[in-house]
Amino acid sequence: MQRKPAILCSLRWKRLHSARPGTLEGGVSVTIKDVARRANVSVATVSRALNGHQNVAEAVRERVLRIADELRYSPHHAARSLSSRRTQTIGVVLPDLYGEFFSELMRGIDQVARERGLHLLVSSYHGNPREQGVALRTMRGRVDGLLLMSPFAEGADALAGDLPPTMPAVLMNSALTPGVHASVGIDNHGGAMAMMRHLLQAGHRRIAFIGGPDDNFDARERLRGYRDALAEGAPGIEPRVLAGDFDEASGHRAGQALLAAAERPDAVFAANDMMALGCLFALSQAGLRVPDDIALAGFDDIPLSRYVHPPLTTMRVEIAELGARAIGTLLDPDAGAPGGARRHELLTPELVVRRSSGVNAGAT
C-alpha cells in the first residue's frame, strides 16, 4: 500500500515576504530572501515550495522546507489566513484508523471541516514511530495546518524535530509536552481515579486492571490513576495488572488469565472499552455472570459499550468532541498559531454507570 498521501489541493499563505519569529545573527529578522540565499534557489522557487506547488523538484522542496525550519522562517499571518480562506486543506496524522475511537474522532474533525469548507489530508502511521516522522515530513508544504495524535510516551524529542515550530498545529492527546503548539487532551489520570472510586464505593476491593501498551501515554496515565486510587481507597491491597494492547483480543487473553488464576478478583477495570468487551466475552464463555460473579468496567464509552449484555460501565470521553475541539483550536488565529496564545485544553471524562459494575443503574 502506498503510504505517501496525495495532495488534495494546493493553498497559498496570505503573504510570503514578511518575517516571523526567526532571526539571523545580530537579531536581524529572517526573510524569504534569506531562505532563498541559503538554499541556493530563487525567491520564486522558495515561494512555490512553501505553497506546495507541484512544479518544484522534490529534492529542492525538501531542502527549502528544511532550511526554512532551521531559520525558523514562517510566512506572515499564516494562522490568520488559515481561518479566512475559502478553500483549505488540513493535515490529520493519527496512529491508526481502525476501531470506533478513531472513527468517532474523525467524525468530529470532519464535521467541523465540512462546516468551514475545508478538505482533510489524512495519514495513519500504524503505530510506528518512524512512519509517524515520515507522515509529518510528507505533510510539509502541502497543508496549511496540522492535527496530530502521537501517544508514544517515549521519543518526544524526535517528534518535536519532525513537527516544524512554524507549522500551525494542534496536538491531540499526545505525550509531547505542550510548548510551541496548542493541545487538546483527555484527563486520563483523573478519569481512571474516578472509575476506581466508583468501584471501591460499590464494595469491590480486589480490583484487577487490564493495561494498554507500555509505550502509550494514555495507557500509562490510566494505569497511574488505577494505582493512585487503589492506594488511596484500599491501602494494603496489592495492585493486580494484566498486560493489554487496547484491542479485543488482548482483553480476551486477560480475561482467560484471570479465570486461570488461583484467586478471582471482585472487579476488572480495563483501560479501554475494547479490552473490556474482549474480557466480557471470556467471562461469558466460562459461564460467569457479570456483574453477579465479577464486575467489569471500561474507559472511552465507545458506541458499542451500551449495546452489549450487560451494558458496560465506563468513563465517557466525548471522542468526536475531542476532534472538533482540536480543529476548532487550529482555526483560531491566536490559539493554533506558533507564538500565539498556545491554548492547552484538558477534557474531563464523565463516569457512566451501567449494570456491568454491579450498581443499580439503567442502561444509559
Descriptors:
364 residues; alpha/beta; 434 Repressor (Amino-terminal Domain); Rossmann fold; 6-stranded parallel sheet; 12 helices; 12 strands; 38% helix
Task: Give a description of the structure.
The protein is α/β, with parallel strands linked by helices. Helix content is 38%, strand content 14%. Helix 11 links the parallel strand 8 and strand 9. The radius of gyration is 23 Å and the shape is elongated. The N terminus is likely disordered.
Summarize the structure.
The chain is an alpha/beta fold and 364 residues long.
pLDDT averaged over residues: 81
Approximately how much beta-strand content do the residues carry? 5-15%
**Largest pleated sheet:** 6 strands, parallel
By CATH, the topology of the largest domain is Rossmann fold
- Number of helical elements: 12
Any idea what the radius of gyration is? Answer: 23 Å
Biggest β-sheet: strands ordered side by side in the sheet = 2-1-3-4-5-11
| Secondary structure: helix percent | 25-40%
**CATH superfamily placement of the largest domain:** Response regulator
**Helix and strand sequence:** HHHHEHEHEHEEHEHEHEHEEHEE
Task: Determine and state the CATH class of the largest domain.
Answer: Alpha Beta
Instruction: Name the CATH architecture of the largest domain.
Output: 3-Layer(aba) Sandwich
* Overall domain count: 3
Q: What shape does the CA trace take? A: elongated
* Total E-strand runs: 12
- Structure classification: alpha/beta
Q: Ends: how far apart?
A: 41 Å
Q: Low-confidence segments, ≥5 residues, pLDDT <50? A: 1-21, 76-81, 83-87
